[in-house]
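Entry for the shared binder. Reason: the reviewer on the internal report wants the predicted structure included alongside the sequence.
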Amino acid sequence: MKILITGGNNAKALKLMKAFPTHFVLLADYGEVPGIVTENYAFTSLGALNRDSIAHILLNFCITEAIDCVIPLHTYEVEPLAKSAVLFSEYNIEVLAPPADSMSKYLLPATVSFQNFAVFIKGECIFASGGEIFIKQEEELNGVFGYNEPSNDLKLFTI
């Protein structure tokens, strides 16, 4: 599987790579990005940032690069991608984000930091950096969520 993680110039994106050891991860960001390519991951640029057409930029990029799953880390990307998830799915690209209509309960300012993060796909935790075991959650829990203690409310892990 080929996974696109946006915000590739940020340390949070690098931490997130631990969750996908058997997949190829493409770390991408807007503007200049170091041109590093390895067997398991690569860095690439998404071009100039245009917040008005984020979903369009990322859909074109995902189609061109044969991406299977996109994980938006920039706060300004999450909602447009959640609203466009059906369009992405028509191209067999999964958007790892909660549904747009429930997004507000998962958003926090990007300045909030978390000690741990967990990756959920359709309510099932596939990775938790703190080693916790999360039981199956509601189906809408889709994406990367930060937490300090396992009993905390999960919030989107964004930059």
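Summary line for the report: The mean pLDDT is 87.
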